[in-house]
Amino acid sequence: MSLEHLDTLVAFATVMLAMSLIITTLTQMVSAFLGLRGTNLRWGLKALIENIYPDAKTHAHDIAEAVLRHPLISDSSMSVIRQKVPMLRRWQLANHVTVGEFVHILDKMAGQTGAGDLKTAMQKLAAQAQLPSAAGVADEFQFWFETAMSRTAQRFSLHMRVWTIVFAVVLCLALHLDSLQLYTQLSSDAQLRAGLVTASSALTEKAQQQVPADADQKAAVERLAKRASEIKSTLDQTSLQLVPTPYPAPWYEPYGNRRHLLGVFFTIALLCLGAPFWFNVLKSVSSLKPLLASKQEDAGGAHS
Predict the structure, then answer these.
(1) What's the whole-model pTM score?
(2) N or C: which end of the chain has fewer CB within 10 A?
């Protein structure tokens, strides 16, 4: 393999990583805007309540939501706006709760709730969750709590995977991102290839940066939007043209070419592998460059 071929692979992996990072950022923005962490956690607590105390099934959703909206663990800022916009009420749901927090908040709410079936359900749950000595949480309850949280994490991951696929399909179809054509272009365009090789280090650093979790979903969306803009700015510094110019009218006209359609579907499949996959590929391929350059220098010196 020559350095030119290796640079082509590096450039291709750079584009895939950049697009994967944009898709990941968009997916995280949807998660923050829709409050997916909070809603999935509510689902997990509801399932836990129904399993521990089946008689509370009719109240399980209300209890889980009340716990996650408790001021001690939820984000209650901008509450007036969120009450007026039902979907934004999801933003008040806590993203995380420990077993100790859940038990103590449940016990506290049971004492503050008026007489009725809901109060009885809370008292029964609190009684099963706490040890007789009130020294901690019952082992059985903790086991089921951890099981429910594990299932919640799996459900959240599935939702994120679905959104990743959705954005991969939408972006690839809209941008006519044909990986077969892209690889051919990178093989023949030395300037574009060099620009992407240069940008690879910046994108690798960007991929390693963790976007801090923010309790305020609005701030989280703004932070993620800024991250997506920075990634696009890095790509703009190369001569890569993501948006076709002129843009096809109608947009679907190029898909009459089966090879182009196949290339776009292939790109969708590659992007669905995710940013961590392309980060590792880019690091692995880039690490081969010094070794290959050294071998070529040795070979050139031997021939001379």
Answers:
(1) 0.82
(2) C
Average pLDDT on 168-189 reads: 94
How distant is the alpha carbon of residue 213 from its chain centre? 12
Alpha carbon distance 4, 93 (integer Å)? 52
